[in-house]
């Protein structure tokens, strides 16, 4: 089972993704802020992180940079999640260290394809 960490300040988004991904056989951890997400990533070592970009205090871009600068989490792929579909938003996410990018509302099949590819390298 692939263990995912969802970091999103909107509890409804976490609940929706958790329901949909759990039905598809994924194990889900979640955090409603970047600080808790970073702590969970270090402690639980998920195979992939779904990171909301727009969060208060520490946004998802900064949180992704922090994950990628930490030896214990730099290997974990991050998929940035955002309501913004502009190319510069995708570029900023990739520059911050995200392996991929998905717009909200999430296309579940496309997201699962990305998760499967990134969480099972080789």
Task: Set down the secondary structure blueprint.
Layout: E1 3-7, H1 11-23, E2 27-31, H2 34-44, E3 48-52, H3 60-69, E4 78-82, H4 87-96, E5 100-103, H5 108-119
Helix pairs in contact: 2-3
Structure description:
The protein has 122 residues and is of the alpha/beta class. The chain has one domain (3-119): Rossmann fold. It has helices at residues 11-23, 34-44, 60-69, 87-96, 108-119, and strands at 3-7, 27-31, 48-52, 78-82, 100-103. It has a five-stranded parallel sheet, sandwiched between helices. β4 (78-82), α4 and β5 (100-103) form a beta-alpha-beta unit. The two termini are 17 Å apart.
CATH homologous superfamily caption: Response regulator
What is the top-level CATH class?
Answer: Alpha Beta
User: Topology as H/E string?
Assistant: EHEHEHEHEH
What name does CATH use for the topology?
Rossmann fold
Please give the largest β-sheet: 5 strands, parallel
CATH architecture: 3-Layer(aba) Sandwich
Please bin the fraction of helical residues: 40-55%
Low-confidence regions? none
**What is the mean pLDDT?**
94
Would you kindly provide a brief summary of this structure?
With 122 residues, the protein is of the alpha/beta class. It has helices at 11-23, 34-44, 60-69, 87-96, 108-119, and strands spanning 3-7, 27-31, 48-52, 78-82, 100-103. It has one domain: Response regulator (Rossmann fold, 3-Layer(aba) Sandwich).
């Amino acid at each position: 089972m692939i263990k995912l960490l969802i970091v999103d300040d909107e509890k409804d988004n976490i609940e929706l993704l958790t329901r949909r991904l759990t039905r598809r056989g994924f194990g889900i951890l979640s955090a409603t802020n970047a600080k808790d997400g970073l702590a969970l990533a270090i402690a639980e070592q998920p195979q992939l992180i779904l990171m909301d970009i727009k969060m208060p205090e520490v946004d998802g871009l900064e949180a992704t940079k922090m994950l990628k600068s930490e030896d214990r989490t730099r290997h974990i792929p991050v998929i940035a999640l955002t309501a913004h579909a502009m190319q510069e938003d995708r570029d900023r996410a990739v520059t911050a260290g995200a392996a991929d990018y998905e717009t909200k509302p999430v296309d579940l099949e496309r997201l699962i394809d990305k998760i499967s590819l990134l969480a099972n390298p080789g």
